[in-house]
Amino acid sequence: MEVFAVITAAVTAVILFVFGLDHFSAEIQKISGERFRRFLGRTTKIPVIGVLLGALITAVIQSSSATSVITISLVNAGVLSFKNSVAIIFGSNIGTTVTAQLVAFKLTNFAPWLIILGFILSLMQNRLSIFGKSIFYFGFVFFTLNLISDSLSPLQQNEAFLNLLLEPQSPMIAILVGCVFTAIIQSSSVTTALAIVFTQQGLLGLENAIPLIMGANIGTTATALIAVFNMDLAAKKTAFSHFLFNVGGVVVFAPVILLFIDRITSIEMDPEIVLAGVHLVFNLATSLLFIVFINPFTRFVDMVLGEGKGEFERVGLPSFNADAEFEEIRAEINENLGTLLEFLQENYNLVTLSIETNYRGIYETSAKRIEYVEFLKNEYMGYFSKVIGITTCEDESKVMLSLITRFDYLFQIHDSIDDLFATKRVMNANFIELKSDILLLIRELAGQTLALFDEIHKSISGVSETNISATARDLQRLLDRVNRDMLRLLAEPGRRDAGSLTNIVTYSIRLKDKLVNFAHIEAAHTSSSAASKT
Hints:
Blueprint: H1 2-42, H2 47-61, H3 64-77, H4 82-95, H5 97-104, H6 111-123, H7 132-152, H8 159-166, H9 171-185, H10 188-200, H11 206-219, H12 221-227, H13 233-259, H14 261-265, H15 271-292, H16 294-305, H17 326-356, H18 360-390, H19 394-429, H20 436-461, H21 468-491, H22 497-533
């Protein structure tokens, strides 16, 4: 009965530990919010920076699973490319070693003070109060580790239990146990921390603890693999990379570590510090190895799962610099204006293709690109508010207001494209299929609208002769004809698809008007710029 009581107390403490870790991670993510996501989107183009970010983020939120799931969701949204996401995944394993180091060096003794500090801050009515809960849960996590340690101390007198855990077992079994346990509780930090606590108590030998924490690295990929079931190919590739990376690290380094296990166990240091050191070296070595071979690694993933058609070139994000010259700022924004128009044109093309066809890949790519433009809209609006704040004269303010107006029209064009895509969503939800006569009308509308996009882009690019007005008139005549045909189709009984055409025509008219207005604003801006130069 005594052993049962000890195990019950230990399991209760473990549950509290998992509870605290989960809430700590949630609080940190709540504090960081969208800034955290935007920061990732901007700074991961260089793999080494991606690794450092992955390590830092995981060290802060204390969950490599949370880091990987957030990263995968950003890939699915189009904010991160697959290749840029891989480096963050590599770094997340390094971040998990922080927990092990804190536990090994008994910094958990500060837990009560953190709980008190967090509680006091959460009661305060000022800006510091937002950090109160995160500090409280951080202290709570390590306080529960102390509870686990105290609850297990009676087992040090149980000879049968000690023989089971201290005598060397099969490394493969230990790896499997670590993998399964971590997959169930969805946190390698929990497994690693428990292994170190057991080692501190003298309840677990290094020969068994080392393969156990290696297995935890594999088990932590379960969360990411579960998360991607309804996501696109790029997100699936990121999750698959996470799995390959962690399995590959164990396959490459486990034989080396286990070969020298006798030397490791003979090191004259506290065993928990040795275990934390092995955990750190193992994850660092794995990350360094894979970052060196990141290009062949990502090509291998592409080869296995296929090149992602949903992958696309990102539109340049402006980077605010208060010391930059105004002309530099204007040149960067002007360059991105044409790129964004091209991106919207491709979005429109894909949306109309998704309406005409039932190809799931086109539909998913359209959804991702539209979500990405929503991200861009928030980025640019935030950037413009900062730039307006540092403009020093009336002329600069006028130029910036003109640029903001032009970008605003582009995002209005995006809104109409999004409305068209919403029609496709409704069609899918209600299992509406378009008949051939409506499909032909939509194809004709799409072709003429894309021609208007082309003419406007020529105008932005500086082509002297453009036919924007003539192309817009042709599109209006076509819309008038489609409207007449639509009335005839609506009169036919049983034509469920005619209602969808009504929405498509309405949104196409709005899109045409926004494109024409944008063209007029561009023409006025060009004339004003030419006049100011003369």
